[in-house]
Design brief:
9-stranded mixed sheet; 316 residues; Immunoglobulin-like; Methylamine Dehydrogenase, Chain H; 6% helix; mainly beta; 2 domains
């Protein structure tokens, strides 16, 4: 009896084990499907306040006035409610799409900070910055030319070696053609500047590069007209000064012993030896086209160079 009970119990356990193992399906559990989590929501955009752009004056400008007008634009998806310049409210008639403010200047550099607030009250306290210096407009000018028709002047800044422009009406000076403005070859050592009214351009003698360069008076773009790489003939790096013809087609590069005629269309150069009086040094020179001569200011005397004979005569 005990033996039969034991056999029955073992059979029952075997049946239960088979049932638990899937009824003879090999004893393997079904593959589990991976659980996919929903994507995390994108973070809400950060509202940093309005974006500002300063349109005038350029950063680093110099002014001779006691105050200056700062102008710019502002934009924000929620609208712009306020713009301040050094804490003073700017004015606008188009919801600050454009704005302006007048600030006082003290002698020397003036740091100017512009802040803005959008319609929801979000502030951008450091939206834009610039520096304006108050000083003398022609300070550190190695050469300068006037353009009265446009009420402006151009000069070479001997500190930076860049071309600067002066707005006579605004009494404002700013970089016009240099590292931060204009395009074209870099300046090496520009020493002389001439306004070419016929071709509507500026002509610059860059002694460090040994080149005559044309500059667009609106964009500041630079283009070499004559150099060691453009046109054939003697190098211009030995010249001390250049006299430009009013037609903008010819220039004369001068050294104490020679005169080099430069074709500003082709860049071709032809050198002539000078005779007559010896020029001690060339400080300044000017083409006297009516009398076909070049007037030269030396360290002690004034000379005239006849263009036909290339002979030098001391005038004073």
């Amino acid at each position: 009896m005990l033996k039969s009970h034991t056999i029955f119990s073992l059979a029952l356990c075997s049946s239960l084990l088979l049932a638990c193992s899937g009824g003879g399906g090999g004893g393997e559990e079904p593959a589990r499907q991976p659980v996919s989590n929903p994507p995390a929501p994108a973070p809400a955009p950060v509202n940093s306040g309005p974006e500002l752009t300063i349109t005038a004056p350029p950063d680093g400008a110099l002014s001779a006035a006691e105050e200056i007008i700062i102008e710019g634009t502002a934009a924000d998806p929620d609208g712009v409610a306020r713009v301040t310049v050094n804490g003073l409210d700017a004015t606008s008639d188009n919801q600050f799409t454009t704005w302006s403010a007048t600030v006082s200047l003290t002698p020397g550099p003036n740091e100017i900070t512009i802040s803005a607030t959008d319609a929801l009250g979000t502030q951008n306290n450091n939206a834009a910055r610039l520096t304006v210096e108050r000083g003398y407009l022609y300070d550190n000018a190695s050469d300068a030319v006037m353009e009265p028709e446009r009420q402006r002047a151009f000069l070479i800044d001997e500190r930076s070696g860049s071309l600067l422009a002066i707005d006579a009406a605004e009494r404002l000076r700013y970089e016009f053609s240099g590292p931060n403005s204009g395009s074209g070859p870099d300046w090496f050592d520009p020493i002389q500047l001439q306004l070419d009214r016929t071709q509507d351009r500026l002509l610059v003698f860059d002694r460090g590069r040994g080149a005559i360069v044309a500059v667009d008076p609106d964009s500041g773009e630079r283009r070499i007209l004559a150099s060691a790489d453009i046109g054939a003939g003697p190098d211009l790096s030995d010249a001390e000064r250049v006299a430009f013809h009013p037609d903008g087609l010819v220039a004369y590069a001068l050294s104490p012993a020679s005169l080099t005629e430069v074709d500003l269309v082709t860049g071709q150069r032809q050198q002539h030896a000078l005779s007559g009086s010896t020029v001690d040094t060339v400080r300044r020179c000017l083409l006297d086209a009516a009398n076909q001569r070049i007037l030269v200011t030396g360290s002690e005397h004034i000379y005239a160079i006849d263009l036909a004979s290339k002979r030098v005569r001391r005038l004073h």
